[in-house]
Amino acid sequence: MTEKPLLKIDNLKQYFPIKGGFLGRTVNHVKAVDDISFAIGKGETVSVVGESGCGKSTTGRAILRLDEPTAGKVEFEGKDVLGMSAKEMRRMRSEMQIIFQDPYASLNPRKTVRQTLNEAMEIQNVVPKKERNARIVELMETVGLQKHQIDRFPHEFSGGQRQRVGIARALSVNPKLIICDEAVSALDVSIQAQVLNLLKRLQREMGLTYLFIAHDLGVVRHISDRIIVMYLGKIVEMGETKSIFENPQHPYTKALLSAIPVPNPKKKAERIFLRGDVPSPIDPPTGCRFHTRCPFATDKCRTEVPLLEEKDEIYKDKHSVACHYALDIQQGKHKPKYNMTDVRKNLDEEGMDNKSKEKQLENA
Amino acid sequence: MVVASKERIRDTRPVNPRVKSFKDTFRRLKKNKSALVGFYVLAFFFVVSIFGAIDANYGLTGISSNATNLTAKLESPSAAHWFGTDHLGRDIFIRILHGMYITLGVGFAATFLAGLVGVPLGILAGYYGGWFDTIVMRLMDVLLAFPGILLALAIVSVLGGSTINVTIAIAIGAIPQFARIVRGSTLTTKKLEYVDAIRALGARDVKIIFQHILPNIMSPIIVNTTLFIATAILTAAGLSFLGLGVQPPTPEWGAMLNDGRNYMYQAGHITLFPGMMIVIVVLAFNLFGDGLRDALDPKMRK
């Protein structure tokens, strides 16, 4: 990481109120993002991974103030983003852009590509009016679209092409940071690769910084320098891609990584299964949020919130984890209460109805 | 070969989705026979009402709708008086012709006024939410709690009966309908990612509302407008019938019904023809509106 981060997030919280009762009072909160801090250096690609509902997208939206965060601090090049007035914020928006997941919903169906791009440049006034057309052609070429497609409407494009238009729109205002909110999740695998390579090329050429929100770990490994693993609104582990993939320290990360399919039918991957479902973010578990599903959980985990710290000396400045027993687990000092790889088997047996059990006995 | 390649170029030309969706809508509308009948009836009435309006105000034919002829009162339909005459010997056909623009005009104007107030209220309530939304929508609920005709009746009795007051009264009753429909559509549209994208680009709310939300919620507005015109005409006629609307001797259809009420048993045609006209116009609007709703419904698209 460079000396001064491009984007710095401190204790960001995003609570969504749940309205209820007679007068629509706030009865509770969904704690979508609860007290997270991280920084992104210039030119870096940082990925945020985690399962659905863990607050990845919410984080991205909060940074751009698409949803106003509840608390915390977002600094972009040292400037406090959340404290900006509406006017300052509008000017600021050319620095930070977003690419959305669904290329079918992210373009206005009634505007041509030219209108969409022109509008973006007009809002930020980045290019003089006379040069806009030339810039639109240039942008189209940059993202790999043909010149003759400029006056087409979104419904005339395929999903991959629309995503390219979305990328062109984000690029049109010359941003420094682009938040890719599941930018390739909705695309075919072959198109995914094309778009990812395009993003990488743009990064090389323009020195872009990406905050890449994704759930596909293969994609994440391919594109990112660093990875942030989130679980239920909190960061559980953060570190360099290599170190996260090769030496995951948090039990949740281990389970997550073990879910990546191995492209070798003969090699039997040791799959870690987690018990139960993700608890509700309305009333998250006390202490470590993962303790309800963690085989290593102790009373300490149930009461004390683990801090995101660098536990392993070897990975100093490169890898931090929020687990009380990260080191002990690694060194084999702290044993799981049950075998994580067998959970599926246990569950199958528990869930088996009597009939099939009888059948099994008969067969035996 | 040259011709063929030219053909291909023409085919790949971009189609404006507005034009395309209009064409699609019209195609689907044409398949719906009853909607088409409604459309033609309305088109016919529209042309006739323009003629009637000119004739009534500038006297092209020289026949006045208010010319009384007591020697020829309560006459049955004949070649001289197509729809017969009323209790003052006035020609009912001429009166219907001359009153048509008033009836249609009140319907259109009331709906337009209601839309003019209801659509912005609905958009602002849906877009901004919060206390504005709560206040506006609760107000709309209050208005909605009154039956349309009763509310109009109350307003007219305060303002006094005249064409303009009737229009205003009906419009006020219709505002909640527009506001509700528009608010709902706005809520759906503003959650779409392209609205987020344009916000992330730093667009002002005015731009987002007018260029990105309004064009995409037009179909429910259009359908509601068409269907409401029928209701407005009916309410206007009802008010006039009760003597609270357009005042005699203006040949408004509802007022004509009221005039003929006392002579219904001797000369049924006095009430029959204005009543029939109201039925036809309202039916035509409803048929057309229903057809339009089906044609604009994205779920019907194939």
UniProtKB/TrEMBL annotation, chain A:
Entry's Gene Ontology BP terms: peptide transport; transmembrane transport
Region (Disordered): 343-364
InterPro entries according to UniProt: AAA+_ATPase, ABC_transp_ATP-bind, ABC_transporter-like_ATP-bd, ABC_transporter-like_CS, Oligopep_ABC_C, P-loop_NTPase
GO molecular function: ATP binding; ATP hydrolysis activity
Domain ABC transporter: 7-257
Alphabetical keyword list: ATP-binding, Nucleotide-binding, Transport
SUPFAM superfamilies in the record: P-loop containing nucleoside triphosphate hydrolases
SMART domains named in the record: AAA
CDD domains (alphabetical): ABC_NikE_OppD_transporters
Family: Belongs to the ABC transporter superfamily.
Protein name: Dipeptide ABC transporter ATP-binding protein
From TrEMBL, chain B:
Domain ABC transmembrane type-1 as annotated: residue spans: 100-289
Location in or out of the cell: Cell membrane
PROSITE patterns per record: ABC_TM1
Pfam family, one: OppC_N
Keyword terms of this UniProt record: Cell membrane, Ion transport, Membrane, Nickel, Nickel transport, Transmembrane, Transmembrane helix, Transport
Topological category with respect to the lipid bilayer: Multi-pass membrane protein
CDD domains according to UniProt: TM_PBP2
Source domain of life: Bacteria
GO biological process, one term: nickel cation transport
Main subcellular location: membrane
Keyword Disulfide bond belongs to the record: no
One GO CC term, this protein: plasma membrane
Transmembrane segments: 35-54, 100-127, 139-158, 164-182, 221-243, 263-289
Family classification: Belongs to the binding-protein-dependent transport system permease family.
Name of the molecule in the record: ABC transporter permease subunit
Source organism of this protein record: Salinicoccus hispanicus
